[in-house]
């Protein structure tokens, strides 16, 4: 297996533009890079990776990882803020386990952060997974960089943030029927999550996004071990996704969803269901000429 050193990683991070004070949203598939020299366990690997990142971003930098618990939504198990393990890999689990890290509160799409801006990103967030004042919205406000270690750069979490904030018709805000436990006590708070309609098969194709990213200057890449690492400017990435959605809201799908007329989200006019008086009362009629003269209207 190809090996790389901590020095190699540090040089690669600097080579893709990571610098002191950066806020990094980090996702990893470390096995794709090969073996980090001298490391004998998964925990030691995560520790060395995090040390290398902070060697570059220093004490004014921040590392944020996804600590998703999608099994809560899939199987209905409780979300325990202090104890529910993430399904987003060993590096995320390691960051979450550190006594100095802070976790955001969401039963499916939480994050954990460590470093200078951890509280500002994770505490007192909205009940939305990807909406306004979620951790990801705050990361955009703080000009974060997406760091992909062993993962492709085309698809990342800010793709879903853009889908949500653009208000695509094949996405809705689902109320989460989840028991949420904090410090051993069930809390009475409602959470929701932007999700796709399960009844409409949706297949993505991100070729247009890859082409657009290739024409931009928001992605920087470097070889490391047997793979690649990438940094992506989150705001530039987000804006590119939005610009493509403006051209076609279904641009990232192999074909538009086959919505059924009369059913959500294509459920037609609302008369008879919305308790509003007869629409005839709201038809605009031309004002009489003498009315216009009497009130001095500008025609």
Would you kindly provide a written description of the structure presented here, covering whatever features stand out?
- There is one protein chain.
- This protein has 299 residues and is α/β, with parallel strands linked by helices.
- Mean pLDDT is 93; it is low at 292-299.
- Helix 2 (42-57) packs across helix 4, helix 7 packs across helix 9 (234-247) and helix 8 (207-215) crosses helix 9.
- The strands form four sheets. The chain has a seven-stranded mixed beta sheet.
- The chain contains ten helices and 14 strands.
- The chain has one domain.
Indicate the topology.
Layout: E1 3-4, H1 6-15, E2 23-28, E3 35-36, H2 42-57, E4 62-66, H3 71-75, E5 79-80, H4 90-97, E6 102-103, E7 111-115, H5 118-122, H6 135-141, E8 145-149, H7 157-166, E9 171-175, E10 180-182, E11 185-186, E12 192-196, H8 207-215, E13 219-224, E14 227-233, H9 234-247, H10 289-295
Parallel strand pairs: 1-3, 2-4, 2-8, 5-10
Antiparallel strand pairs: 4-7, 6-7, 8-14, 9-12, 10-11, 13-14
């Amino acid at each position: 297996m190809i090996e790389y050193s901590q020095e190699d990683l540090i040089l690669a991070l600097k080579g893709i533009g990571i610098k002191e004070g950066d806020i990094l949203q980090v996702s990893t598939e470390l096995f794709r890079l090969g073996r980090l020299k001298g490391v004998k366990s998964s925990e030691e690997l995560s520790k060395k990776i995090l040390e290398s990142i902070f060697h570059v971003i220093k004490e004014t930098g921040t590392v944020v990882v996804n600590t998703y618990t999608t099994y809560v939504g899939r199987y209905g198990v409780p979300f325990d803020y202090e104890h529910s393990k993430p399904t987003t890999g060993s590096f995320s689990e390691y960051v979450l386990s550190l006594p100095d890290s802070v976790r955001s509160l969401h039963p499916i799409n939480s994050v954990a952060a460590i470093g200078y801006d951890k509280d500002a990103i994770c505490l007192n967030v909205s009940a939305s997974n990807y909406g306004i004042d979620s951790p990801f919205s705050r990361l955009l406000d703080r000009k974060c960089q997406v760091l992909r270690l062993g993962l492709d750069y085309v698809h990342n979490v800010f793709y879903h943030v853009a889908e949500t904030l653009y208000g695509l018709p094949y996405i809705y805000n689902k109320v989460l029927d989840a028991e949420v436990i904090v410090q051993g006590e069930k809390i009475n708070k409602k959470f929701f999550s932007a999700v796709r309609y399960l009844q409409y098969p949706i297949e993505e194709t991100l070729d247009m996004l890859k082409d657009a990213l290739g024409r931009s200057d928001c992605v920087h890449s470097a070889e490391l071990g047997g793979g690649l690492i990438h940094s992506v400017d989150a705001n530039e990435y987000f804006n590119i996704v939005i610009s493509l959605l403006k051209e076609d809201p279904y641009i990232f799908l192999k074909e538009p969803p086959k919505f059924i007329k009369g059913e959500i989200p294509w459920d037609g006019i609302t008369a008879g269901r919305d308790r509003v008086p007869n629409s005839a009362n709201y038809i605009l009629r031309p004002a009489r000429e003498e009315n216009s003269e009497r009130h001095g209207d500008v025609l």
